Amino acid sequence: MMYLAAFGLSFLISLGLTPLVRRLALRYQIVDIPTSLRKIHQAPMPYLGGLAIFASFIVVTLIFLPVSRQLIALLLGGALLAVIGAIDDVRGLGAWTRLGWQLVAALIVLTGGIGIVSITNPLGGTFNLEAGRTLIHLGSLQFHITPIANLFSIIWLVGMVNTINFLDGLDGLASGVSAIAALTLFALAISPGVNQPLVALLAIILAGSALGFLPFNFFPAKIFMGDSGAYFLGLTLALLAIYSGGKLATIGLVLGFTIIDAMWATVRRLRRGQHPFSSDREHLHHLLLQAGLSQRGAVLSLYLLAVILALVALDTHSFAKLIALIILFGVMVVLIASLVLLGRRKAARG
Fold first, then answer.
1. 32 φ, ψ (degrees, to nearest 5)
2. Hey, which of 78, 102, 224, 248 has its CA 20 to 30 A from 156?
3. Which residue, among 60, 43, 105, has the nearest Cα to 78 in the 3D structure?
4. Are the CB atoms for 46 and 31 separated by under 8 Å?
5. Given the DSSP bridges, would you call strands 31-32 and 45-46 parallel, antiparallel or unpaired?
6. Cα distances (Å, whole numbers) of residue 248 to 156, 236, 243
7. SS3 category, 258
8. Taking 80 as the threshold, does the pLDDT of residue 227 lie above it?
9. Model's pTM, two decimal places?
10. Rounded CA separation 171/187 (Å)
C-alpha cells in the first residue's frame, strides 16, 4: 500500500507541476528553437520539464523516506545536475563545463558513501574493488577513499547521465524508457532475494515522477524535459542500480540498447575529431526515423525492446545476463549497420 501511495503521489505532483513549468518556460521564452538539421520538432518547444520530475521526486522522497547521509548525497547530486541542466537549457554550456559539473555531482554522491565496491563475476563469486582503501577524517565525518572502486563508480555515474541525455531525442523516449528502468529496479528491490524496501520506494517514486511527465512529453510533445531531466534521471537510475545490491547488470541490460548506442556515438564523434557530447542525427532513434518509422512508432518500438530486456533481466542470473548482453550487442551492431546502409541508399537515390 505504501508503494502505491508513493507512486500515486509522485505521479500526481509531476502531472500537476508540468503544465505550470510549461507556462513559466513559455513566459520567459525558455524554448528549444529548431535551428539545425538535427532537430526533429518543427516549432519552438518549451524546456525545463525535468524540473517537474525532480521536484516531484524530492518532495515525495522526503515524505516517505527517513533522512540519511546517503539520501542527502543522492538529493544533493541530483539537485546539482537538475540546476546545471536547467542553466544549460537556458544559456547553453560548453561540453567540458557540463562534464565538469557531472564529475562534481558524482563526487558528491561518493562522499555520501554511495559507490561500487564489488562486481559480480558471471562465472561465480565477486570482484572486490576495495584495494587501497583509505579512511579520511574531516572533523566528525569519515570518508573512505578507494581509488579503483571510486573510478568505476564515477565512470558508471557520468556514463549513465550522458546515456539518458543521448536517449532524449524523440518525444517521450527518455522519460518512458527511464520509467521502465525504474519499474524494473522496483521489481528487483521487492523480490525476496534482494528485499530492499527503501530502494523499492525510491524506484517507484522515480517511476511515478517520470510517468506523470510523460502525458505532456509523448508525441506530439507539449514540453521537453531538457538536460535538467535527462541528467537527473540518469544519475538517479545509476544510483538505484548501485543501491539494489550492485545490480548493474540488470539496469545495464534494460538500458543495453541505449548504452550501446551511446558508446557508438562516442566512438564516431571521436573519430571525426568531435567532442563526445556534440550532437548529431545518427543515434538509433534517428536511424529508425530515417528507415521510415514515425516518431510514435520508433518510440513504441524502443519501449517494447526495453520491456523485453527488463523481463529477461528479472528472470535470469548473472551468467545468463552476460549472454543476453553479448547477444544484444551483436543484434545492435547488425541493426545499426543495416539502418546506416539503408539511410545511405535512400540518400543516394535522392
1. -95, 110
2. 224
3. 105
4. yes
5. antiparallel
6. 9, 13, 10
7. helix
8. yes
9. 0.90
10. 26
Question: 175-195 pLDDT, tens per residue?
Answer: 999 999 999 999 999 988 788
Q: By three-state DSSP, how is residue 138 classified?
A: strand
Q: Which amino acid is at 6?
A: A
- Where are the chain's structural domains? 2-349
Closest CA to 180 of 266, 300, 306, 14: 306
Sequence length of the chain is 350
Nearest partner of 38 among 203, 166, 178, 216, judged by Cα: 166
Cα 234 versus chain centre, distance: 3
Residue 39 zone, left/alpha/beta (φ > 0; ψ -120 to 50; rest): beta
Residues 6+ apart with CB under 8 A from 76: 108, 112
* Per-residue cell: 238: 545509476
pLDDT at residue 7, rounded to an integer: 98
Grid cell locating 37: 538539421
pLDDT digit string, tens, across residues 294-325:
999 999 999 999 999 999 988 877 778 888 88
Rounded Cα–Cα distance for residues 259 and 309 (Å): 13
Can you tell me which residue has the cell 564529475? 103
Bridge partners (DSSP) listed for residue 142: 137
Report yes or no: 284 and 166 within 8 Å, Cβ to Cβ: no
What the block records as the C-alpha cell of 214 is: 510523460
Tell me which amino acid residue 146 is. Answer: T
d(CA 243, CA 107): 16
Show the cell assigned to 233: 534521471
Which element (helix H / strand E) includes 337?
A: helix 318-349
Report the alpha-carbon distance of residue 6 to residue 262 in Å, rounded: 32
- Placement of cell 548482453 in the chain: 325
Vertex 332, ends 307 and 203: CA angle to 5°?
Answer: 30
Lookup result for grid cell 509522485: 10
CA distance 222 to 200: 30
How far apart are the C-alpha atoms of 329 and 350, rounded to whole Å? 32
Whole-number CA gyration radius for the chain? 20
Residue given cell 559507490 in the structure block? 115
